[in-house]
Amino acid sequence: MSAISFELADGRSISGHCDPQFTGVLTEFRRNFEERKEVGASVAVTLHGRNVVDLWGGLAKPESAEQWKRDTVSIVYSCTKAATALCLHILVDQGRVTYETRVGNIWPEFAGGGKETTTVGMMLAHTSPVPHVAEPIKPGGIADWDYMTARVAAEPAHWEPGTRQGYHGVTYAWTVGQIVRLVSGMPLGEFFQKHVAGPLGLDFHIGLPESEEGRVAPMIAPDPVEIDFGSAFFRAATTQPGSLPNLFLTNLGGADFNSREVHAAEIGSANGITNARGLAGMYAPLAAGGGALVSPETLHRMGRVSAATHSDAVLYQPMRFAMGFMMSTDNRAAGGDSLILGESAFGHVGMGGSIGFADPAQGLSFGYTMNRMGAGILLNARGQLLIDAAYRAVGLTSDASGAWR
């Protein structure tokens, strides 16, 4: 790869490496800073297991003008769900649980309130009937594993298990994370480090050690003028107390995702901390047949659409999911939020616009993280244009069908 090091007009810098084949990714990364209000960010791509893009730039902490460094990390919100799901897929691959296993056989406290027929596969696919908890979460509650697993287990079903798809924006940490914990006998973050991050050499944490706190770039809230408050999701979230969109955005126990308390907790739906290299690195084996993580058979099951709907019960827009991963979802014509990938690709966005995915058909893995959050519930232009450039670099020519081909 060619070494990259240059200053932008405002004095910020971009550094790293980029294979000449992927110059388009570098061009869009630079334009993010010059034209799209990027503050600090990283992007990484692997192709057939080879690192072809590893770039970072801008400011990690604007108030002190601290530069985004090679080892800067940030919270990646729902990109964490993919890491949590991967842990459960590894346990399935090891033969310790199946997708068809009823959750109550593993977690007896969960099997009540109409949830009795919920399966492990439903938990992974967002068709479990606990997309959120209805009563207020206590202050600091989402950082308290035992409290939240008890709340999720006690929550009555919001629908008959498996009959609706509703994004488990927060509860995924415990609907899936508790299964990992009970089946493996170890905390979610420990399992992820032992079986994924450690063996792959990833700087990726679910439960950040205090010694690493100084490397974290605090998240910057999206500009309110960029938010489409007229969308069905945001109308419900802001005007319908108790609706699932409203609970998703507001019933968080006052959690501050820039706080040490949240960074230290194990919130497997929302508090993973890494950078683009960590995201692309996690997906790299999955883009190459499964590697040492899972067998080809499990990988094939992981990457298939398992649930799709014209109106997700939480996000109020069309969505397509594999078991624990988002699939290419094109809502451009309807004015909704989208994620345009290759048809074989699977991954996950994080609130504000971070993204990681694998595309086994192309042998491609990708990661993008940033600190200035964008509006919307899927990708914004910064991440999508980087993805588009990566696909063009490997010879794909059109996304008009709703997926790159």
List the helices and strands and how they pair.
Elements: E1 2-7, E2 13-18, H1 23-35, E3 40-47, E4 50-61, E5 66-67, E6 74-75, H2 79-93, H3 103-106, H4 120-125, H5 145-154, H6 172-175, H7 177-184, H8 188-200, H9 232-239, H10 244-250, H11 260-264, E7 273-274, H12 276-283, H13 296-302, E8 307-309, E9 319-322, E10 325-326, E11 346-350, E12 354-359, E13 364-370, H14 381-393
Antiparallel strand pairs: 1-2, 2-4, 3-4, 3-13, 4-5, 6-7, 8-9, 9-10, 11-12, 12-13
Helix pairs in contact: 1-14, 2-7, 2-8, 9-10
List key phrases describing it:
14 helices; alpha+beta; 3-stranded antiparallel sheet; Beta-lactamase; 405 residues; 8-stranded antiparallel sheet
Describe this structure in words.
With 405 residues, this protein is α+β, with helices and mostly antiparallel strands. The chain has one domain (2-83, 190-393): Beta-lactamase (3-Layer(aba) Sandwich). Helix content is 30%, strand content 16%. It is built from 14 helices and 13 strands. The chain has helices spanning 23-35, 79-93, 103-106, 120-125, 145-154, 172-175, 177-184, 188-200, 232-239, 244-250, 260-264, 276-283, 296-302, 381-393; strands at 2-7, 13-18, 40-47, 50-61, 66-67, 74-75, 273-274, 307-309, 319-322, 325-326, 346-350, 354-359, 364-370. Strands 1, 2, 3, 4, 5, 11, 12 and 13 form an eight-stranded antiparallel beta sheet that branches. Strands 8-9-10 form a three-stranded antiparallel beta sheet. A two-stranded antiparallel sheet has the order 6-7. β3 (40-47) and β4 form a beta hairpin. α1 (23-35) packs antiparallel against α14, α2 (79-93) packs across α8 (188-200) and α9 packs across α10. The protein is globular, with a radius of gyration of 20 Å. It starts with a strand and ends in a 12-residue tail after the last helix.
